[in-house]
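Help!! Second protein's tokens look totally different from the first
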Amino acid sequence: MRIQASALYFALLAATLIALLLSSFLLLSKTQRIFQIKNLSILNSLEAVTQGLDMALSGTNYDAYSYNDRSVKIKQDAWGGFFLFEAQDTTDSFGLQKQALTGGIFKEPTSIVLKDNFLPLVVAGEARIEGTALLPERGVESAAIAGKYYLGEKLIFGNYRNVSSINFPRLDPKWLSKTDSLITTIPESGISLSTEIKKTFSGSVSHVFSTDPLWIDQNIGGQVIIQSSSTVNITKQANLSDALIIAPKVIIEDGVTARLHVMATDSILVGNQVDLKYPSSLVLIDKSGEEMTGNVSFIGEAKFGGNIIYYNSESNDEILNTNIGTNENTTIIGSIYANGAVELLGQLQGTLICYYTVANQNSQKYRNYIFNGRIITENLPRKIAGLPLENNPQTIAKWLY
């Protein structure tokens, strides 16, 4: 009897173990199946949002589209001197999103595009222009300023042709509209300026606004806007990464190292020993009308990577104020755009697009002169993201998270 009970006990134990093993196997199979479905959905979602960004960069104007039964929304905004693209898969809970800063690219390395204002481009001193140049019909000449004659063996170290062979590049109207909206919109609510503000580019923006001047010495990064209706001073204690600064006047003090974006309406001043890393941007939307008094000024040794833009909707050819001015110790890798005048004293490794160049020497203004400034196209990454120009293909400046 005792033997039969023991046998029954072991039989029940064996049955229980088998049942547990079977249920574990079924649970494992179901879990693996769920993971397979989830992984497949994530891979399909990644492919869909990547395809969405590729289509947006190629110039396809979609707000939403379907790809392999995945529904993707495309959003395009301005963020400093770049576009901010977002592709979001809204199909299900497995849907992904990708964000990127983008800028335009030229088909060929272009050093300078100068509006045909019935004057030649004049090079003097140690000026040097490399690469393809698009110039006024009167071409390029050499001259002297304060007894300093042009020292180059050639006027242009590359090819040049009449700028009238193309339409003068225009900033993208959508970028201008979204930039104006960012500058003029006062947030209904926001957050306080604290020691550290970090925000990913997925979701809504974190916005700090003040009617008083602001001094920035905090750790701020991501999708954060710091805005003042007066002045923003950025100190060398600040640690800024991808943040957007908006104010009539922005002062970047000596010793600042950052990657940031600035939008101003009156002036942007860049101090000495400043290093603004790519992709950064300085945007001056001049609200002074035909007086064209707005300016971006580099006053000392500085390094800058990205886009510098001056724009005035009432640009006046009769006015010759310096709207973008660099120091002889300024090095810029990227692009400069101005529908006004640019004084280039340092080195630009990239592209200059402007209505006029100007040299301010001996209390005189020399229209369409470049004195000692250098525009170099060698060793520039071919697909570096440049200006937000109309009808220009886009490329990625930086993936955002």
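Here's the second one for comparison:
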Amino acid sequence: MKIKAVAVQMEFRLNDFLSSRNFRERIFDIMKRIDKMVELNERSLVVFPEDVGSFLVFLDEDVSSFDGLEKAAKAIIKKNFFTLLLKRIRYNVGWITSFILSKYRKIWDSYYGTFSDVAKEYGCYIVGGSLLIPRIEVQKGKVNRISNRIYNTSYLFGTKGEILGVQRKVHLIELEEKLEISSASLSELRVYKTSIGRIGIAICYDAFFKDVVEKLVLQETDILVQPSANPELWDERLEKEWPTGCWQAVQKYPTLKYGINPMGVGKIFDLVFEGMSSIIAKRDKTKDKSGYLAKSTSRNKEEIIYADILL
């Protein structure tokens, strides 16, 4: 079976996250461009980068005039001081967690509504990057929080817009710890069976850890998806280190057939993202023996790369 794999090297722009309408239009515009390139259908898998939904924390916030993330955060806390203080005391959490807990429903409605609708419209599978959100359960259209901790969470959407899978990040980088993000348990990792193969998700840093990758491999993953957002400049060190993640895993484990690693780029306040997206196969399955079926040409510009994979 031939599958069209697509990695979205999306440019993060603050204005796209300041309203649900902006976010929806942005994602639908990207999908429209992809459809023109590959003619999306039920045998297509589109993967967005890590944190594509994380900046929805700024929904309906007047923060466009700030030049730094810390300044914006302080302004939001000051504006909502007493509300957030009550949540801090009630749930014994920090300021950032209190803020996300106060608007997780609004964040979820925008994120879920957008990705569910766009997956349904194009009839394809989508990994919606990730977003910062507490553990939730959705019943009869209503979303309820079942924890007071925030996780970096990825969702897999099916061709009818339904949620097929959820994955939370296990290994966190220093910035995430500062932002009060909690680490998920290794035991939560699951592989999701679809009509285009078994999909395993390792959010960015997780793909560099043997415990995560082997947990997914043991569950017979066909396609390893690594949504990424690297919050630093892409230099020679990262160029050398990055292949030790998804690329190395695909080469090392015989049953792991492909990898899809989209990376976020752009700038949110003073936070800069750079990276090189790729679609990966076994070395002997690529014409130049590089192990790359497709790779972006820029480290800091928006690109859409795609390749045919066979399962």
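Reply: Different proteins will give different token patterns, so don't panic. The longest helix spans residues 95-122.
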